Amino acid sequence: MGVAEIRFTGRQEQLLAAAARVVARGGLRGLTHRAVDAEAGLPEGSCSAYMRTRVALLTRLTEYVTSQFAHDIADLTHRIEEHAGVDGYVVTETVAMLRSWLQDPDLLLVRMELTIEGSRQPAVAEILQVQWVQLVEIVEHAMETTGKAHSPVRARTLLAAIDGVLLRAVREDPDDRARFLRDSLELLMTSLVGKSTEPSH
Predict the structure, then answer these.
(1) What is this structure's pTM?
(2) Distance between CA atoms of 69 and 138, rounded to whole angstroms?
(3) In whole angstroms, what is the distance from residue 120 CA to residue 139 CA?
(4) Digit-coded pLDDT (tens) for 9-30
(5) What φ, ψ does residue 18 adopt, rounded to 5°?
(6) CA-CA distance, 14 to 32, in Å (whole number)?
(7) Under a CB-based contact definition with an 8 Å cutoff, are residues 146 and 193 in contact?
(8) Which of 138, 69, 73 is CA-nearest to residue 108?
(9) What is the distance between the alpha carbons of residues 21 and 40, in angstroms, rounded to a whole number?
(10) At what angle do helices 33-40 and 54-82 cross, to 10 degrees?
(11) CB atoms within 10 A of CB 148
(12) Is it true that domain 3-192 has CATH number 1.20.120.1760?
């Protein structure tokens, strides 16, 4: 099942939104069932009734966080297909999508915390990988539309660099985030989209 198809009950959404706030505020170290219950304003034991173990909580939180980005990614993919051949469209719209993500920096921070946790928890990594593949395809297509060299390795490198830019952007003054994102992505595209020396497979 793709991330976009995952559904949550109203109570699950309440608990997972609270879990995301806990992680955004204090990192994964502070993520406990008791902390989630307190953040959600629910009786102790509520979170564990739905997600009994820490791994279950982490997995479900990862599904919840990626689902928050899934609609934007699916919508962008659809619009790219509809505007195939329109000069500059993919790059402009990709930047716009990333800029919109900066409007909820806490969610981005949680996603980044979970990305690191994925190196320790295969269940978390598996969920994140689905969305990573989607994003790589979008970025590679964006690079292709420039009419210059493109390849999966360039797309993966650019996407990894974008993650770093987003992490830095959430630490910028809110009034400066959009400008920082735009300027950084322009530099990245200039550096990574050009004459290719590596195979495209």
Answers:
(1) 0.80
(2) 14
(3) 27
(4) 999 999 999 999 999 999 999 9
(5) -65, -40
(6) 15
(7) yes
(8) 69
(9) 10
(10) 60
(11) 14
(12) no
